[in-house]
Amino acid sequence: MDVEGRRQSSNIEDRRGMTPVRTGVGLSLGGVLFLVVLSLLGINPLPFLGVATQQPQVQMKPSSQPYQESAQEAKLRQLTAVVLADTEDTWKAILPKYGVQYVEPTLVLFSGATQSGCGAAQSAMGPFYCPVDRKVYVDMSFYNDLATRFGAPGEFAQAYVVAHEVGHHVQNLLGTAKKVSDMQQRVSKVQANALSVRMELQADCYAGVWAKNAQQSRQLVNAADIQVGLNAASAIGDDRLQRQAQGRVVPDSFTHGSSEQRARWFRRGIDGGTLEGCDTFGAQDL
């Protein structure tokens, strides 16, 4: 990816080096560890955070010394800001066609732990989007995990992560997130997991829509980058993560989709480039 000289988004909130300070009743250490275990098993931890009702119980205390980022971190921050800016350009052009104005999300950079509108967050949970405060949360150490632990190196693998989380923001603006959340409250856990899979695969598809737009309109990415993104989507499939964490695969507990499904829906977004092509909820076969 050629990010030099590209516009960088101003919607970056840098909390790196800041320390969470408890101000009320929040998650216990055991609760945090429980969420981390869920994440390692490939289970989306956000439903367990009480997204709809939990109020922030932690404030972020600024460090006495400014955060000192390494040269590698500075490069990753630049890449993240450029990709976020490009998603802004993409969705500002697309969503008005569907009667929705694009409201830009904020991307929060943090290190170790932070507080979101959806509850406390740990870096071990991985990047996530909180629909309550409309913010994407990323600990950039995940980029290293993506390369070393999951075998998905490359700048576009990192770009895919940002684009996927922004895809959840698009779902929130379109009203999809609320509809699915409401449905999940009325069905069994297995059925709720199946709905979560469709949500995640649609976010993968939306990431592909962005990639196609970025390639055709602004030449930010090329064919080699796309292949890196497909590898990243495949690397974090539920089946692969579960096999790695527990040595076996439990399809009924999938919340994000298999490696094959994630790569296929990402590719579908790239090939089609439309929201209609990303209708995972209307698809008979995922």
Structure, explained:
- The protein is an alpha/beta fold and 286 residues long.
- The chain has a single domain, classed as Collagenase (Catalytic Domain), CATH 3.40.390.
- Helices cover 49% and strands 10% of the residues.
- The protein is built from nine helices and eight strands.
- It has helices at residues 29-40, 71-94, 141-148, 155-174, 176-184, 189-218, 223-235, 238-246, 259-272; strands spanning 12-14, 19-22, 58-61, 106-109, 113-116, 119-122, 128-130, 135-138.
- A hairpin with a 2-residue loop joins β5 and β6 (119-122).
- α4 crosses α7, α6 (189-218) packs parallel to α9 (259-272) and α7 (223-235) packs antiparallel against α9 (259-272).
- The longest helix is centred in the last third of the chain and has 30 residues, at 189-218.
- The model is unreliable at 25-44 and 46-56 (pLDDT under 50).
Short description:
With 286 residues, this protein is an alpha/beta fold. 49% of the residues lie in helices and 10% in strands. The two termini are 30 Å apart.
How would you characterize the largest beta sheet?
A: 4 strands, mixed
Low-confidence stretches: 25-44, 46-56
State the distance separating the first and last CA atoms: 30 Å
CATH hierarchy: architecture: 3-Layer(aba) Sandwich
Mean of residue pLDDT values: 87
Helix content: 40-55%
Could you tell me the CATH topology label: Collagenase (Catalytic Domain)
Q: What's the shape?
A: globular
CATH C-level category: Alpha Beta
Over the alpha carbons, how many angstroms does the gyration radius reach?
A: 18 Å
Order of helices and strands: EEHEHEEEEEHHHHHHH
Q: Count the helices. How many?
A: 9
Number of domains: 1
Q: What topology, given as strand order, has the largest sheet?
A: 1-4-8-7
Strand content: 5-15%
Tell me how many strands there are: 8
Alpha-beta classification: alpha/beta
